[in-house]
Predict the 3D structure of the following.
Amino acid sequence: MGIKVSEALVGWILFWPVYKHPSETTIYGNNISNNGNGTHGGAIKLVGPTNLNVTNNRIDSNLGYAVQIGSEFFSSSANISVISNTFNNNYAGVIVSSSKEVNTIKDNYFENNTHASISFNPGILNNSATANVITTQ
Amino acid sequence: MYVNDSLVDGNKIWLNNFYGGGVNDSWNNNSYCVNISGTNEGNYHKWTLGAAAMGWNECGMALFTNPAMIYTLFDNSANITWRKQSSANSVMYYLHYSNDSGTTWNYIGSTQDTNYTWDTSSLANLASYVLRVTPYDNLVNATINMTYVFRIGHGCEPPYSMMVLHRNTTLCSGTFYLSLSNVSNVITLENSSITLTCLGTHIIGNRNGTGVLVNKGYCTVKNCIISNYSTGIYSSYDHTTLLNNTVFDNAQMGIFGGHYFDYSDITNNTVYGNYWA
């Protein structure tokens, strides 16, 4: 995994786990490539952060997802902006695994990402994907 | 000197010169460290006699007081200080250094004072140095004392395993193989609002532990090259800035931002070849 920003269990209230979500973080101008193992582990994994911007990064040839918002177990990521990045030759570009609404995928360039350029898992509501350039899939 | 009897008690023994034989006293009833006008005085022992030939509380030997901590860093000069060797005669102190774990000793200088300003500007940024001081009373050498391992860094500091930073720090350029056990970190930023600046410094691990742990808020890590740890850079603190680093070939994650990674920036880094999810 190249970069992971993740919430963590910080306590329990009435038997429900309480998670602290990092927020207001910027991932800008990085070159993130060749990460992962099989289709596990990609460039950027965002497990629960809010108000996070992924902007102007070059994300190439990662064996897992280039940007994964949420995961199989957490659903609290929200207000993630993935803007003006370049995604080439990854297993997948941007996948929204599980998330609250209002993520924005905008003005990105996708080329030759094997599985999909942008993928929304079942149950994802009210996200936006706009003005992206998708050359394959 | 033979005082080895339980009935020999309460005697004060100081400023003697033991050039042979030393002290035979296993009862600890007598004192070999006597306060004279606010200064503790012991005895002068020929260096070959060793600790076994000293009284139980002998305090006469010279003892370095600076550097006082392991991995003290000196730049272009080092102010070396030590506690004086007790002696009724005048004593000259001879200083040597070693940068090969004591295999060879290089002469620095001599003085009758208990401090010496050592010009270290011509010394390279090597990993570690040790100093020794040898008191000499014009007849025999007394007990030799050595410093902790310390470092020379000209405008920068060489990294080492388990390095804990409390202030802004610049690491020297070069490649440093710094292995870890699984739960530790090479470099830990332990005060808030400090910056770790690398001069292209490359730290290489053994796929265990964390290369750089940011353990307080408002910290910056920049221009570092980090590879072959479990995680390259780890921060669960706010206002972390990670700038212009290269993080690659780590077993799990290149960069990890945890639950308090609020208001943080990951900018212009190169992150590749990090293996697991």
In short: Chain B has three domains: 1-60, 64-152, 163-272.
